[in-house]
Design goal:
Elements (H helix, E strand, L loop, with lengths): L2 H7 L1 H6 L5 H13 L1 H20 L6 H12 L8 H4 L7 H66 L3 E8 L7 E7 L4 E8 L7 E9 L2 E8 L8 E3 L8 E8 L11 E6 L2
Antiparallel strand pairs: 1-2, 1-8, 2-3, 3-6, 4-5, 4-7, 7-8
Length: 267
C-alpha cells in the first residue's frame, strides 16, 4: 500500500482515535516514519480533532464558576481546608457535571468511530465504483471500435461498385479459400481470408494482381486472430485476376509461383 492509498483508506483517522489493530497500527507507524506525506496527513487529522474538541467544549454553569472563584479569593483557614469544604459527602453538582462530561465524551467518541467507519466504507465503495467505471469505459471503447470496423467492412461489401473475386486453393492448399473485394473506380482492394493454413516460420502470404500477364505486388497480409475479416491491401487500378503466394517475411518483389496457394479470375 502506497501513501495515497493509505491516506484514502481511512486507516489514519482510525489510528488517531485508537481504533486500529496491531497490524494496522504497525503499518501506519511505519509509513509515518518513512513518508512525509503520511506524517503531514496524521498531523492534520490530529489538529482537526483537537479543533473540533475545542469548538464543542462546554463551559461549566455560572453558579459553579462563581462558587469556585469565591473559594479561591476568600480567606483560607487552617482549621477548615478548602478542599474538604468543596467535597460534600453526598453527590453534588461537581459529580453530576463530571458524569455528564464523561458521557458526552463517550458519545462523541462513539459518533466519531461510526463516522470514520462509514467514511472508510464509502471510500472503499467509491474506489470500487471508479475501477468498474474504468473497466466499463475500456470495454465500451473496444466494442465501439469493433462496431465501427464492422460497419466499415459492411459498407465495402454492400457497395454496388465493389466487385467480388473468389480465390480458390491450388494444389499447394486445395482446401483454402479467400475473397477479394475490389472497387475498380476507387482502386481499393480488400482481402477476406476464409480458410488458409498459417505459414511456416519465416514466411508470409503476399497478394498479387495479375495485370496483362504480369504479377503486381498488392501487399502482404496477416493471419493473426485479431486480423480476421477484411484487410486493406494496396490499390490496384486494373487487373485480370489475383493470386496469393507464400513468400519470405516482409514480402518479395517477384512471386514464387511454385508457392502459389490461391488463384482467382476477375470478371
Amino acid at each position: 500500500m502506497n501513501a495515497r492509498e493509505l491516506i484514502g483508506s481511512g486507516l489514519l483517522e482510525a489510528y488517531v482515535i485508537g481504533q486500529t489493530d496491531a497490524q494496522e497500527t504497525a503499518l501506519v507507524e511505519r509509513m509515518r516514519n518513512s513518508d512525509p506525506e503520511v506524517r503531514e496527513e496524521l498531523e492534520r487529522i490530529e489538529h482537526d480533532l483537537e479543533r473540533l474538541a475545542r469548538q464543542n467544549a462546554k463551559s461549566p454553569p455560572a453558579a459553579v464558576r462563581s462558587m469556585v472563584m469565591e473559594r479561591i479569593a476568600g480567606p483560607q483557614s487552617t482549621h477548615s481546608p478548602v478542599l474538604r469544604e468543596l467535597t460534600p459527602a453526598s453527590p453534588g453538582p461537581w459529580r453530576w457535571l463530571a458524569a455528564a462530561s464523561v458521557a458526552a465524551l463517550l458519545i462523541s467518541a462513539a459518533g466519531n468511530v461510526m463516522l470514520l467507519s462509514e467514511l472508510r466504507s464509502t471510500r472503499t465503495a467509491l474506489a470500487r465504483l471508479e475501477r468498474e467505471q474504468v473497466m466499463l469505459a475500456e470495454q465500451f471503447q473496444v466494442q465501439n471500435a469493433s462496431f465501427q470496423l464492422s460497419q466499415e467492412q459492411l459498407a465495402v461489401v454492400m457497395d454496388p461498385r465493389t466487385e467480388l473475386v473468389t480465390l480458390k486453393g491450388t494444389t499447394n492448399a486445395a482446401d483454402s479459400k479467400a475473397r477479394i473485394y475490389w472497387d475498380r473506380s476507387a482502386h481499393r482492394v480488400f482481402i477476406d481470408v476464409l480458410s488458409l493454413p498459417d505459414p511456416p516460420a519465416g514466411k508470409q502470404y503476399q497478394l498479387w494482381a495479375l495485370v496483362d500477364g504480369t504479377p503486381v505486388d498488392a501487399g502482404i497480409f496477416d493471419m493473426a486472430a485479431d486480423a480476421k475479416g477484411l484487410q486493406r491491401m494496396k490499390d490496384i487500378s486494373h487487373a485480370q485476376g489475383f493470386a496469393v503466394t507464400q513468400e519470405k517475411t516482409g514480402g518479395s518483389p517477384t512471386p514464387d509461383l511454385e508457392a502459389m496457394v490461391l488463384l482467382g479470375q476477375a470478371g
